[in-house]
Amino acid sequence: MVYQVRVTPTLATMAGAQMLSGVITTMLYGVALLMILRYFSSHSRNDPLWTKALIASLGVLATLQAAFTNHQIYDYFVINNNDEAARDVMPISMPGMIACTFLTTSDEDLIDSMPPGYGKVALAIVQLGAGLVQVALMNISKTQTVMFERFVDQDILTVYLNGASAAACDILITLSLVTILRSTEVNATRRTKALLEKLVVYAINRGIVTSVFALASIFLYDFASGTLYYLIPFSSNTHVYVISVVSMLTAREGLRENMDRSFHFSDLMMNTSTQRTVDNETPQSSDVLG
Asked: 107 Cβ partners below 8 Å, 6+ apart?
């Protein structure tokens, strides 16, 4: 596999793209953190312990990824601003950011693959494996020059495998969720069907957004090769995954509360009392005949 440089590397396409990636990643991290805090404060009381542990772990990985991303920018623009040789050395935050990104996306896909399906689980494992190989290559290379000269083919392969498997896994998960929700509607009441339709919309939107980000990273890595613009969707996808998971949980809680209010026991008691009043006011046949 030959890596063809399509765009001449410049300060704007390399350092500028990296800085833009850091800004967008940090903004998305702020949104993800607020949603996680909101989940634990208002929507987690009925969830099992493993769900809370999962959200907490995603929050930790997202925090580390944002910290690593900003460390790279500080290392490049401040610490080694006037040292070209030092800029070529990969800081520990670079493989750290890559590892956090892959762990977040692949772990979330593994969780979403439940109930298990061999295709979805296999794609999630391929996604994680490709990420771990890329992290290992970075640790072996030590510098970006060595990485490009010796391991460029392997690096390209891991990028394609990860992006393609992530998008395919998201699509399969979305199709499975929609199929399950659609089959549940068969014997559901009209109000329940309306709630299920909302869940279907959430599932489709979630699958579209995460798949687009995964495919965009591959597209920019290939057709904008020689730049670092692919880092924008790649690093941002961590927080997009976290936001999608937490938004599904908070939306589910709101729908559950709506369902509980719809069939609350007090409403049944009120309806029964009203019916009794109507029955008492209706003349009986004996009264009419009498």
From this structure: 57, 58, 61, 128
Q: How confident is the model at residue 117 (pLDDT cuts 50, 70, 90)?
A: low
Q: Is the pLDDT of residue 184 over 80?
A: no
Place of tokens 């990636």: 21
Report yes or no: 142 and 89 within 8 Å, Cβ to Cβ: yes
Q: Which residues pair with 225 in a beta bridge?
A: 227
What is the per-residue pLDDT for 86? Answer: 86
C-alpha closest to that of 195 among 112, 244, 251: 251
Specify the 3-state DSSP secondary structure of 185: coil
Domain regions of the chain by residue span: 11-260
DSSP 229: T
Does CATH place domain 11-260 in 1.20.1070? yes
